[in-house]
Amino acid sequence: MKTFIVITTAAVILGTGLASAAGPGDNVKITIEKWRKPGSNNAGTADIKVTNDNDFVVKDIRVKCDYMSKTGGRKIETDQRLPMTVKAKTTKLFKKTKFPFIDQEAAEGSCKVTGAVQG
Q: Which residue has the higher pLDDT, 8 or 108?
C-alpha cells in the first residue's frame, strides 16, 4: 500500500511538471486572404486576417510561413514579427502586409502563428 501511494504521488508531481500553460499566441490564427507575389526586392505582400480568441489584446504576432518553390520542390521558410495589435475576441484585416525574403518562384504556401505578446 505504501508503494502505491508513493508511485501515485510521483505520477502527480511528474504530470504537473509536464503540463504547460497556453501562451497568448495559442489562441491567435492567421488567414491569408490575398497573396501578391514578390517583386525584385523579394518582399511579397498579403492581405491577412488575424483572429484573436483570447480574452485580452495581443500584439507583436510571430508568424512562420512555409512555401514550396515551383521548380525543384524546394521548401522556403520565413519567420517574422508582425507589429500589429488585435483586440480581444475580434478578427482584423491587415492589407498589404509585407513578407520579406520570399523566393520569386514561390508557388503555394501557408502561414501559422507561432507566438504573440499580451498587450
A: 108
User: Residues 6 or more apart from 26 whose CB is under 8 A from it?
Assistant: none
Instruction: Fill in the amino acid letter for 29.
Output: K
Q: pLDDT grade, residue 15 (50/70/90)?
A: very low
Cell of 19: 503540463
Let me know the angle formed at the C-alpha of 107 by 106 and 108, rounded to the nearest 5 degrees. 120
Burial of 12 (0-12, 13-18, 19+ CB in 10 A): exposed
Location of C-alpha cell 495559442: 26
The structural domains of the chain, ordered by start, are: 22-118 (2.60.40)
